[in-house]
Amino acid sequence: MVSKTYDSGEDPWLEISPIYGLTLFIAGGIYFLFKRYQRIKYRAVPFTVKVPAAASSKWTSVVIENPSLESHLMNSSLMPTARVPLLMQGIHHPGSKKADDDTPLYITCFDPSTGYHLDTISADSEYDIAEKISLARRAWAKSRWGESTFNERKRVMRSLLRWVVKNRETCARVACRDTGKTMLDAALGEILTTCAKLEYLIDHGEAALKPESRKSAPLMFYKSSKVYYEPLGVVAAIVSWNYPFHNLISPIIAALFAGNACVVKCSEQVLWSSTWFMGAIRECLAACDLPADLVQLICCYPSEADALTMSPHIKHITFIGSETVGRKILQAASIHLTPVTLELGGKDPCVILPETDLPKWIDVWLRGSFQNCGQNCIGIERFIVHSSQHDQLVKLLTEKTKKLRFGPALAEGSNDGGYVAPVDCGSMISRHRFGDLERVIQEAEEEGATVFLGGHPWKHPYVEEGMYFEGTVVANVSPSMEIAQHELFAPVITVMPYNTVEDAIAIANGTPITVDRWPWLIQTSIPAPLQYPIRSVVKSWDFLSGMIQLFWGESIGERTSGVFQIIKASR
Questions:
Q1: Per residue in 425-440, pLDDT tens?
Q2: 180 — alpha (psi -120 to 50), left (phi > 0) or beta?
Q3: Residues 38-50: what's their mean pLDDT?
């Protein structure tokens, strides 16, 4: 064997054949070409969805007197004129809400901030629900979606994200029209949250679903253990009305990314907007050469809901809503031992420690209380403050709350056609809880609490059928009062004094369910354009719209434009 030695002045790399360099160059070129091919193949697919006329601020309609889900039974002119397809027709079942045996079930859709009639849509029967589950099962099996690659799933997420960013105003307006919320509330609770979740799935969803290794016991040292995540098939979600876009799309994108089909039951209160949002998701699937039937929308009265929760073909149920309904879903799902994930309401506390700088945080607390007019499952419902600062906090909260303007968000805000009205808070979703809210507040007052502001429904001077409740501040509340124990889901602030930190902790943990906490060391602030009362509603929307464009814009130019939009709106 002969080996070559080199003098100290010689460089052995000079002896390497050029073939090695050429091979590395070709391999690198192939790799980059493959990556470029992957980016092109799985990039976002553009698609369009027709904008509903009711999303315009100029749109008007028939004003329903004392509107409800069954207004069509009182006013026959609200019934749809077009023939309803067989699949969409409700079929009478014992206990269902029906005028007679030959009339299908309907749901009246209306704008709670104005009383405008939006549409009257057929409610699903038990037969319809079973058929939609079957459609999802067939689409899932035929498309072999459960065997799809993560790149294919990311393509759907990228397409949806691109569409949401480009159509953020339309999505916000549709949500506002069906719930009565403001554009600012929609931007924060519907658009920003949805974009963030889509981005998370694109960036981290694959890693979250990859097989995970587990350590073996010493006796099994020669074996390896792994956890694999496999698609279930058809899963279901039953979602609440307070964020119709975010609550609808969140379980759908999670299900699709995990390789499942998804059947969503929306609330009857937001059937109109949910139908449009679901149409957009189905259009996205079609644009990606996938069957639109992978996702299905169900809306029915409670008497038919068991057809979904007790179906043997549903492999998992996600529920967002109240504790009472959550218990019923658990009971129904137990028939087939269907796994259930519950996201329930709560009585969220904001614990304020002694000597806290109250004026510094007041804007954060107000946003936490009045976001979405208090109809927010992680909103602040209890301010637990040291007794030495109780009166100061009540004064700050009352002064700020007095300045809040309630009204319809999609009324004309300017002569040049601006769609954002100068309001801070929108309407409630309906009037059916107004009586109970008044009772709880009145009983608290009788038991020793002080109502410093509000406590009653508010009649808008120009919108007779708008469903508004006054911004309310109730102080000196004790833990034993009903107002301190049960979620109000309304623009109502309760202030509870304590003497020691141990007392504060006990009060905070003294309710059955607590969804979130607002610790005193929170170090975020509310930007000036978003502080109550809103100085310029147009600028507040522009500020958040710029943020969306900055973080999720498709190009450098779009993101740069978002920066300038934020700066302009902040002046």
A1: 999 999 999 999 999 9
A2: left
A3: 86
Q: d(Cα 27, Cα 570) in Å, to the nearest integer?
A: 50
Does residue 295 contact residue 282 with C-beta atoms inside 8 Å?
Answer: yes
Q: How far is Cα 554 from Cα 552, in angstroms, rounded to an integer? A: 6
Worst-scoring range by mean pLDDT, 17-26, 270-279, 408-417, 457-466?
Answer: 408-417
Q: How far apart are CA 188 and CA 211, in angstroms?
A: 35
Residue 570: half-sphere exposure toward Cβ, Cα within 13 Å: 11
Runs of H (alpha helix) within 47-125: 71-74
Q: What percent of the chain has pLDDT over 70?
A: 87
Closest CA to 451 of 434, 469, 475, 470: 475
Mean pLDDT, the chain, as a whole number? 89
- Say yes or no to pLDDT of 367 above 90: yes
Rg of the chain over Cα atoms, rounded to whole angstroms, equals 28
Residues 562/556, Cβ–Cβ less than 8 Å = no
Retrieve residue 532's tokens.
């109550």
CB burial string 413-452: b at 16+ within 10 A, e below? beeeeebbbbbbbbbbbbbebbeebeebbeebbeeebebb
Q: How many CB atoms lie within 10 A of CB 310?
A: 16
Compute CA 145 distance to the chain's CA centroid, rounded to the nearest angstrom: 25
Which range is least confidently modeled, 38-47, 232-241, 345-354?
Answer: 38-47
Active centre residues (catalytic) = 343, 377
